[in-house]
Amino acid sequence: MRKRFSIVALLAVFALVVAACSSDTEETTTTVAEAMDTSVLDLAVEAGQFSTLVAAIDAAGLTETLQGEGPFTVFAPTDAAFEEAFAALGITAEELLADTETLTAILTYHVLPQEADSQLVATLDGQEVATVQGESVTISVDAGQIMVNQATVVSADLQADNGIVHVINAVLLPPTIAEALGVAMGDDMVDETTTTTVADTTTTTEAPLPTIAEIVVELASADPAEFTILLAAVQAADPAVLEALSDPNQELTVFAPTDEAFAAALDALGITADELLASEDLTNILLYHVTPGVFLAADVVAVAPIDELPTLLEGGFLKVEVVDGSVVINESATVVQPDVLASNGVIHVIDAVLLP
Q1: What are phi and psi of 231, to 5 degrees?
Q2: Which of 134, 172, 246, 340 counts the most CB atoms within 10 A of its CB?
């Protein structure tokens, strides 16, 4: 079984919960909690970035109802998205969590009763798609970015046990709930340069995506931190590496190893992190993880296998193939989190360090 981030397990909880609360069947299935040594709730708490979903599950009394078979597609807002929504609506988290009827409607509005990866979702451009809640969301594609209503998919194709998850940067409100709460919705509030979401009930300019370098810094400072060695390596390497990852005019694809991946590589090589950071090979190793051009996961899957994908390391090539539904690089590194979008490209998180 391929490795998944704890965030994926958390989002699987979300998918299963909303599936269970919408299902009429009494048939019992094996839950994620039963299939793992650590419960899904434990993993949800450990992830640290989706605590509002955990609180919502508990407040709605859905913690024990993880029985949905799926498949489902979940559009999952981050904690930051929920915080902005609360501020825009002028309510507290406690007030929403106390209204279980509204809470359940909002949660199920984020779920489609089918599995749809980013490639399939992109084909729905301009269409309305019914959710588990009953009302529809509008799918659109703008400059290669998938939009759900006015929320942007910021990380796509996270595979859960009973479906697929796309992380979004705003909370979606069913039209009936939005009307009841007095939130202005609809395309009449959106023009070519501005957008309106529940996080902002007035029309404002949408913030640009961060650069790849800024995302690496953000991931390295997250709790739990997963990319501290990668950040240290970028800072210790030739300044041209950081400049390339920071350049908003670049179009790059980065395969980013986690701290655990670096630890395994250091152990296999018999060296310390300090020795790696001081190595003359450090810059070449980093450049070997970067390819010119933007290759989303769906693009890679569509054309795989790729025998020679050029890298920024002169003369360096990567072998890309799909094995049991997972993208594998050089027969050793698996993409465990695809499509982390940046203003100058995309990051795919991998579970092993690539060596030229």
Answers
A1: -60, -45
A2: 172
C-alpha closest to that of 55 among 74, 38, 41 = 41
H/E element, 178: helix 175-181
Q: Record the pTM.
A: 0.49
Q: What angle do CA 307, 259, 316 make, to 5 degrees?
A: 25
Torsion of CA 274, 280, 283, 288, to 10 degrees: -100
As a whole number of angstroms, the distance between CA 289 and CA 286 comes to 5
User: Is 116 in contact with 73 (CB distance < 8 Å)?
Assistant: yes
The DSSP bridge partners found for residue 128 are 138
On the question of pLDDT at 250 being above 60, the answer is yes
Rounded-to-integer distance, Cα 337 and Cα 341, Å: 11
Q: What is the largest CA-CA distance in the chain?
A: 62
Which of 162, 313, 318, 135 lies closest to 241 in space, CA to CA?
A: 313
In the prediction, which pLDDT does 232 show? 95
Q: Are 252 and 215 in contact (CB under 8 A)?
A: no
244: number of Cβ within 10 Å:
22
- For 76, residues 6+ apart whose C-beta sits below 8 A from its C-beta are 11, 14, 50, 53, 110, 165, 166, 167, 168
- What is the tens place of the pLDDT at every residue in 98-149? 888 888 888 888 888 888 888 888 888 888 999 888 899 999 987 678 899 9
CA distance 329 to 256: 12
Residues 6+ apart with CB under 8 A from 94: none
**Helix (H) / strand (E) containing 122:** helix 118-122
Q: What is the pLDDT of residues 323-342, one digit of tens each?
A: 887 899 999 999 998 888 88
DSSP letter assigned to residue 188: G
Q: What is the pLDDT of residues 42-93, one digit of tens each?
A: 333 444 456 786 677 667 654 443 245 667 787 878 788 888 888 888 888 8
Q: Residue 13 above 50 pLDDT?
A: no
Q: Is the Cβ–Cβ distance between 215 and 347 less than 8 Å?
A: yes
